Amino acid sequence: MGRKKIIAGNWKMNGTPTEAVALANSLKDKISGSASDVVFCVPAIDIIPVLEAVKGTDIQVGAQNIHFEESGAFTGEISAKMLVDVGVKYVVLGHSERRQYFAETDETVNKKVLTAIKNGLIPIVCVGESLTQREQGITVDLVRLQTKIAFKDVTAQDAKKSVIAYEPIWAIGTGKTATNAEAQEVCAAIRQVVREIYDDATAEEIRVQYGGSVNGGNASALFAEADIDGGLVGGASLKPEFEKIVNY
Ligand code: 13P
């Protein structure tokens, strides 16, 4: 049986609670009941109102980060347990913006992946190279290493249910999408490293998304590639165009 596609909107730091509810309401009827899993990964303060807005649909709500500790003196942070308590199912971890601006490392991403899974959240683990790294020819080596560290101490059972998002940094917010072949090549390499860490069954079940300037025009060709199981969508997830991506 094929893998079910998963299409997630990463709203990043966009949308007041009022705006977030308006966006969710404007999209929900057009994108619920689709053949894919659909997730809105929204700012923390928008989680509860958006959950309320999509109640009764099959749209899931995700967070964009967690702290790796369960609780304690970590001012300003949000725990996995808090998210689970309100009904969050997914969490984006290790996004390149968090690695770049908030000093996240492969090691902290691994800790967060373990904490997310322990609490019942499905991690969407982001990996991907910079333009310099691509030009140096180390893309596959880099994403293999990022994947291996992120999944250190994660069981095959838990890895199977997880999601990996391949997001080349040079394609994020630039309008410069990876070609279908480039995206497929790296997504296949990610599935291969999962096969090496675990086994065939885990590699066949884990879902690998592509992210980076996905839009209504390029989604269907990207999602047709053998190892691309959907997308992690930034800018276009805030627009009516998201419907086109979900119903590619
Ligand atoms: P864009 O779709 O805006 O390029 O963003 C991609 C992304 O970073 C999703 O996490």
What hetero molecules are bound to the protein chains? 1,3-dihydroxyacetonephosphate
Into which percentage range does the β-strand content fall? 5-15%
Rg on CA atoms, Å: 17 Å
The count of helical stretches stands at: 12
Based on CA inertia axes, which overall geometry fits? globular
- Category from helices, strands and their pairing: alpha/beta
Mean pLDDT metric: 98
Amount of helix: 40-55%
Elements, N to C (H/E): EHEHEHEHHEHHHEHHEHEH
Low-confidence stretches: none
- Provide the spatial order of strands within the biggest beta sheet: 1-2-3-4-5-6-7-8
Largest sheet: 8 strands, parallel, barrel
- Strand count: 8
Span between termini? 20 Å
Short note summarizing the structure:
This protein has 248 residues and is an alpha/beta fold.
Please specify the SSE layout and strand pairing.
Blueprint lengths: L5 E5 L6 H15 L5 E5 L5 H8 L5 E4 L16 H7 L3 E4 L2 H6 L4 H13 L3 E6 L3 H5 L3 H12 L5 H6 L1 E4 L13 H18 L2 H6 L1 E5 L7 H5 L6 E4 L8 H5 L2
Helix pairs in contact: 1-2, 7-9
Structure description:
It contains twelve helices and eight strands. Strands 1-2-3-4-5-6-7-8 form an eight-stranded parallel beta barrel, surrounded by four helices. The longest helix is centred in the last third of the chain and has 18 residues. It is globular. 1,3-dihydroxyacetonephosphate binds next to strand 8.
